[in-house]
Design a protein that fits this description.
It is built from 24 helices and no strands. By secondary structure, it is mostly helical. Residues 4-31 form a coiled coil.
Length: 655
């Protein structure tokens, strides 16, 4: 007997297996049903495909047979035509010969026609290409800076009808003539006109620069010279100002001691109007400077004119010359005018180099406005020459580098010349006024104010430090500040050495005082003081200390007069020595011929000296009322008021 529990477990196990088998059987049945459905669907699709294939075959077979018949007919026709051509060829021998003769004549006529078109192309270009009038060029380049509203100036190189004919001829020659010679003709003719336009502008400056007829009347009325905007500064004013200051230092100070007009006040006037200072020699120099002014002004305008004309020429060229030949043709077209401008720039550099060898550093200032204009024009220059040969694009940068180098050399040698000026005993002002070296040095530095960025770039171009490789405007400004401070230091050292020539310590003090005061007032009157303060903030205080020190040195010269008035108000008298009266007379006579051009300083020195001498003398006179001598007039020949009047006449030859 099987236990009941085992039987139940066995039964459950059998039931579970039976259930699984039933589920498996159910799955198989479902799969079979799906397979039957798929089979039926596939059979239906194949039956449909077979039916359509039979229909297509029934349609194609007749077409194929028809095509085969047509191909056979075509082959028969071709063979027939070939035979006919072979037979007919014997009947056209004479006609072929006649057609050959006709073809040769047509080719000759074609070549002749092409030659006539090329000649017409050259003729139209030559006949109607004219130099651009100088006034029209000036109107075009002057509108950028000098006018409130830019004038609409159009540079028309060719009449419109002629231009259209030239465009048509060039298109035909390129397409049918297979000839590019007309491009050479084009750049040769237009190159000549470009060069003539610039030369005409230069000649126009030579003839009309002294007048106001540089621009056309329509544009002249639009020039914006308003009270709030100064007229454009002529580059040549640099040399004129320096020559006139030299004349002023020679005539105005040496010839008019004691005048109320100081060198700085002379600066306030229009230097070009001080004609009475010029003698024949100065007049000749001024005439030469006028020529130089015109040349500089002319060159600057010619550079701008070249850019404007080159842009206009390229616009014209794009209408006539094929695109893939435009850059090369343009490069050839501008070469003559560009080379002439660069040659003229090289001549300016050479002239500056010769001026440096002669130690004529003022002449180098002419480079500054030119260099500044070249650097300002360079972006437009580069844009205009984009796509030309590297040798063409590098011409202007090479000229700029050359000018920067010669300018830096001039600046450095000028600073050295201020320090090493050997002129100690000659040309020293007898009255102790401002030395010509001082006025020239200060004026040279003042001219740099108008070209701070240019001068700073010159100095930076000679720097080998890493910061100079990509110098900024601030870096160049610091270099210029340091340079000016160096020149001032060299000038101060030179003046100290020159002052030793004077045997009289008082005249030595007056000389140094005048020069230091002139330097300080010049620095304050211009922006030089702010520029020097960029790197040396105490320069103003240093000069004030020097001026005060020299005033004190001068005042010591009066001790030999006041020492005759002792503290007890009793005249100190020794046999063989001069008394107060003689000392006063001698000192006033000598110092009356000296000069202190600055009225404010002159009055201050007089007042200080009057105060010291007058107080001592008045005290002496009170004592002199006591009868200690039988000859009181020997000790008080002058009243206190007369002594003050004598001191008021110091530094005044007209008194």
């Amino acid at each position: 007997m099987i236990p009941t529990e085992d039987a139940s477990a066995r039964k459950r196990e059998i039931e579970d297996k039976l259930k699984q088998e039933q589920e498996t059987l159910s799955f198989i049945r479902e799969s079979l049903e799906k397979s039957d459905q798929l089979t039926k669907g596939m059979v239906s699709i194949l039956s449909s495909f077979e039916s359509r294939l039979m229909q297509l075959e029934n349609s194609i077979i007749p077409v194929h047979k028809q095509t085969e018949n047509l191909q056979r007919l075509q082959e028969n026709v071709d063979q027939t035509l070939s035979c006919l051509d072979h037979v007919i060829s014997y009947y056209h021998v004479t006609r072929v010969q006649r057609q050959s003769d006709i073809s040769a004549v047509s080719k000759t006529r074609f070549e002749r026609g092409k030659e006539l078109l090329e000649a017409e192309f050259r003729s139209l270009l030559t006949r109607y290409s004219k130099p651009v009038p100088p006034i029209l060029i000036l109107d075009a380049i002057g509108g950028d800076e000098d006018m409130e509203v830019q004038a609409d100036v159009t540079l028309e190189h060719l009449p419109e009808a002629v231009l259209q004919d030239i465009i048509c001829i060039s298109a035909w020659l390129l397409e049918y003539g297979r000839n590019q010679d007309f491009m050479n003709v084009y750049f040769q003719v237009r190159s000549s006109q470009l060069d003539r336009s610039i030369k005409g502008l230069k000649e126009h400056f030579r003839k009309n620069s002294a007048t106001s007829a540089l621009h056309s009347p329509a544009v002249q009325t639009k020039l914006k010279y308003t009270p709030t905007k100064k007229p454009p500064k002529r580059p040549g004013t640099i040399r004129k100002a320096q020559n006139l200051l030299k004349q002023y230092s020679q005539h105005g100070l040496d010839g008019k001691k004691g005048s109320n007009l100081t060198p700085l006040e002379g600066f306030d006037h229009d230097l070009r109007g001080v004609k009475h200072l010029s003698d024949d020699k100065h007049g000749a120099a001024a005439g030469k400077d006028d020529v130089l002014d015109i040349e500089i002004d002319s060159y600057i305008h010619c550079i701008s004119a070249f850019v404007k004309l080159a842009q206009s020429e390229y616009a014209l060229l794009t209408e006539i010359i094929p695109e893939h030949h435009q850059k090369k043709t343009f490069d050839s077209l501008i070469q003559e005018a560009l080379d002439n401008l660069m040659l003229e720039g090289d001549n300016i550099v050479s002239a500056a180099r010769r001026a440096i060898m002669r130690h004529d550093y003022s002449a180098v200032l002419t480079i500054f406005p030119i260099l500044r204009h070249l650097k300002q024009t360079k972006p437009d220059f580069d844009t205009t020459l984009q796509g030309t040969a590297a040798s063409t694009k590098n011409k202007l940068p090479a000229l700029i580098t050359s000018m920067e180098s010669i300018g830096a050399k001039a600046l450095e040698e000028f600073a050295d010349s201020i320090k090493n000026d050997p002129d100690k005993e000659y040309n020293m002002p007898k009255d102790g006024t401002v030395h010509e070296l001082t006025s020239n040095a200060i004026l040279f530095l003042q001219q740099l104010l108008d070209f701070q960025e240019t001068a700073g770039a010159m100095l930076a171009s000679q720097e080998s430090s890493s910061s100079a490789s990509s110098y900024s405007s601030e870096f160049s400004r610091k270099l210029l500040s340091t340079y000016i401070y160096k020149v001032l230091g060299n000038l101060q050292l030179n003046l100290s050495n020159k002052a030793k020539v004077y045997e009289d310590p008082a005249l030595r003090a007056v000389f140094l005082h005048n020069n230091y005061n002139y330097i300080l007032k010049s620095l304050e009157k211009s922006e030089l003081i702010q520029l020097v303060a960029v790197t040396h903030k105490k320069v103003e205080g240093s000069y004030r200390e020097l001026i005060e020190q020299e005033i004190q040195n001068y005042q010591r010269s009066w001790l030999r007069v006041t020492e005759h008035l002792t503290e007890r108000n009793i005249p100190a008298f020794q046999p063989g020595t001069k008394g107060f009266n003689d000392g006063l007379e001698e000192l006033c006579k000598i110092q009356q011929g000296w000069a202190v051009p600055d009225k404010e300083q002159r009055d201050a020195i007089r007042q200080a000296q009057k105060r010291v001498v007058s107080e001592a003398y008045r005290a002496f006179l009170q004592c002199a009322n006591i009868s200690f001598t039988k000859n009181p007039e020997k000790y008080h020949r002058y009243s206190a008021e007369q002594v003050e009047e004598m001191i008021d006449k110091l530094f005044d030859t007209s008194a």
